[in-house]
Amino acid sequence: MTMQTTKQDLNDKSKENRHHIHWAPLRGIPLERRLQTTAVCIWIVLAFSCFAFFLYLFTYIFLWPEAELDPEKNYLLGYHPHGIISMGAFANFATEATGFSKLFPGIKPSLLTLAQNFRIPIYRDLILALGMASVSRTSCESILSSDPGRSIVIVIGGAAESLNARPGFSDLVLKKRLGFIRIAIRHGSPLVPVFSFGENDLYDQLENDENSKLFMMQKKFQSIVGWALPLFHARGIFNYDIGIVPFRHQIATVVGKPIPVPVLEDGQTEPTKEQLLAVQDLYIKELQRIYDKYKDTYAVDRKQDLRIVN
């Protein structure tokens, strides 16, 4: 067989192969490659499902600014309430679905989450792609110390508050939360209260009064792993009574007015207890003002007004 004939045969085979599907063999493939392919498939499914999920929610979510934010400053935005999984926080501050950059030009927010979430394979890559960061003190200070306009968004109530999330109620875990105020004062970053009407209306959960065995088990679980475990439910794809698809409910997110923080004196490295409580008082008053102003528009079916709890 000549070299010319060999090339011709190869060309013929190449043309023939263009019209065939090359299936991967069931045997003989290293386990490492199988795992790599599996990981990529899971990532694709999660990525598209998250996109579809947010697309479903975006129809019902909007962002309303009450004041402009100076792009030369670094802000600390406090998001309330936590809800079951903070859907409003993701949509407004981890994506451009509600047009954050147009409403607040020059402000670049980073939504913060538990450090444990960055140890979960694949999920870690998704939240990093959304620009999210750890809520650790080091992470907060690093962002607030960087370029002008860089800001952080913290869901203040955290895991503890998710156990209070149910339709018609707005119980905020805030009285003992002073850490975010301390960080804001240390860096001279104004505090911006944010309240999302409808966040708690997306899911319901089993009754878990503070004295119930279920609540005690949930708190024990939270103390061990750092996450809360609300036994939540909403609607399904083909039913209206049970499932993990959120209820069809609007989320109206109101960004309040910035609260200036006191400047530390020369030689002072930490704010005093009096300074922390004074700023907290202003913060709660602004949060209450937002709620009272919009509750009759966006919380018409509320069962109870805003409460600040332990």
UniProtKB/TrEMBL annotation:
It is a multi-pass membrane protein. CDD domains: LPLAT_MGAT-like. Its EC number is 2.3.1.20. One of its GO terms (biological process) is glycerol metabolic process. Pathway: Glycerolipid metabolism; triacylglycerol biosynthesis; Lipid metabolism. Its main location: endoplasmic reticulum. It comes from the Eukaryota. It is an enzyme of class 2 (transferase). Belongs to the diacylglycerol acyltransferase family. This is Diacylglycerol O-acyltransferase.
